[in-house]
Amino acid sequence: MSTNPRRTEQEAHADGMAVRREVLSDAHVDRAEAGKDAFTAEFQDFICRYAWGEIWTRPGLDRRMRSAVTLTALIAAGHWEEFEMHVRAALRNGLQRDEIKEILLQSAIYLSVPSANNAFKHAKQVLDALDAEGSGGPRPPAS
């Protein structure tokens, strides 16, 4: 997928939906779509076309880098529910647990220690839940 100013809104939506499903999972997107109603439908379309269909499909950064940037931005803004969702996405995008830890440590310096402390708490909850489900994502090799 590439940035093409001649794409239609429907093409951007379709591209966005494909990336959204790859990054967040079919189950997550299916839940979001099932919860869509007359009040939220336009916002869901907006997110799909612009966030996923225009930004996440751009060729300038790979998905691992986009995940790193997204985690940092969500920490900075204190959007913890979205942060947890994107910890899962970061693993799906190929970030290792140790790389997520490094992103959180980096955020302690440039955002704040309290923000990073909260990020570690939320990330650990996600990782523990994934471990309990048996879908914990990539882990470092045992030493």
UniProtKB/TrEMBL annotation:
InterPro entries: 4CMD/NDH-1_regulator (IPR052512), AhpD-like (IPR029032), CMD-like (IPR003779), Decarb_PcaC (IPR012788). This is 4-carboxymuconolactone decarboxylase. It comes from Kocuria aegyptia. Residues 42-124 form the Carboxymuconolactone decarboxylase-like domain.
